[in-house]
Amino acid sequence: MKRVFKALSRLLATTPFRVLLVLLLALELFYLAEVMLDDRRRVLENQQRDMVAELAARERARIEYALSSTVYLAQGLVAFTRSVDQPSEAQINRALQTIYEADARIRNIGLAPDNVLAYVYPLEGNRAALGLRYADLPAQWPSVQQAMASRQTVVTGPVKLVQGGRAVISRTPVYLKDGSYWGLISIVIDLDALLQAQDSGSNTDAVRFRILGDAVDGAERAVMLDDGPLAIRAAVQMPLHVGAADWLLLAEPEGGWDRFDQAILIWRLQLYAGAVALSIFLFVILHSRAEAKRLADELRESNRHLAASNDALEYLSRYDPLTNVANRRYFDEVLLRALGQCRRHRLPLAILMVDLDHFKGINDNYGHAVGDDCLIRVASLITQVLQRAEDLVARFGGEEFIVLAQGLNEAQAVALGERIRRVIAGTLIEHDRADLDPLRITASIGLVSAVPDHAMSGEEICRRADEALYAAKKGGRNQVKAYDNIQNEESYT
């Protein structure tokens, strides 16, 4: 060992060796610097993308709210049509005027009994449209048929307005109490006014947006809003739900995606200067070792933070943020695995759909905050009832939960459903409304238990549970129905 140290000392005494050692250390430090810079660049880019995604989500919520609030005005005319038997022309015009004046974005509104435009407001500039039969208009008839078939509002467009600007057309079908089709309500909405009214505090000027219309029958999406050139592949993309259609919202920073070249260059120069300084003072071995350790510690800390961030993102992608139970995406993953296991081992797979009864009334009478408390409490109650680690409860949408339990036959699944129903029915939800009693809720449960074969998909077994749930609600709510039982009941009717 002494000979080695002596040989090393001799080498350090030579200029070529010292130069070689300094160069090797400099190269190593330059490499570490590039690793840190690349990591820092990714952090900055992710922060920028998160900012754009947040602003895009706000803009999407604003547009969806603005459009839905305008479209929802048609429900007033639906109620008017159902409740007033053979209204006079004056009554109809007053109703149209009321809806028209309720929202400045409405250009005109019309009623078409039996799909023939009989009333329009304002009449000025629209008189020529009276008497038009939608069935005779190839460009509009498909959307009318879609609204009639879906029994939902259909929004189409954009269309150019004669008086300038663009508009979308909302078509709402009207079905009377006896289920017969009465006709159509059409609202022409100023698209430019709808899209350009931005929240002054939302900082959306920092983001460039493009909104594309629905892709109907594979056709190219129409451009609803275009703030300027935009890289579609790199842009943040979010769906915009408009009635029965899905628009697409694209967003990117106003100046494009910044590569942070200037900041990275400054940091690179700083790191390189430090590396050169460390290389020059290589002979201070203790100092160089301490510096290397510091750099290694920073790298480990960065990796730890990255791993923690990945864990947090993984949790958010799998669990519902309100109730902290699994979301539908994670449920679908678990269901796919459970189907495979049950097929291999010939085990029954039970699916229970739990739907809170009259939940809309809770939101309407007690407020959405109490409604959210109900969902959180129900999710906790179901989780407590499930005693096996492999059982899963997920929020399936709105006030609906779904439970997956392997190895339970129908009788066991019914017993589990009854336990869930009873614990929910026996729970009081406290609230701050002094004028109302504590809230008691109930739930309807539909379930299916089957040994799946290769022909049974996840969609099919969930469909059966949903059909049983429908039977439970139809049968009076606050009860448990099994799919096989309702099939037997139907076979005897």
From TrEMBL:
UniProt GO cellular component terms: plasma membrane
Keywords: Membrane, Transmembrane, Transmembrane helix
Class of this enzyme: transferase
Domain CHASE: 116-196
A GO biological-process term: negative regulation of bacterial-type flagellum-dependent cell motility
PROSITE patterns, A to Z: CHASE, GGDEF
Domain of life: Bacteria
Cofactor(s) in the UniProt record: Mg(2+)
Compartments it resides in: Membrane
Bilayer-spanning residue ranges: 269-286
Pfam name, any one: GGDEF
GO molecular function, one term: diguanylate cyclase activity
Residue ranges of every copy of the GGDEF domain listed in the record: 347-485
Name listed for the protein in its UniProt record: diguanylate cyclase
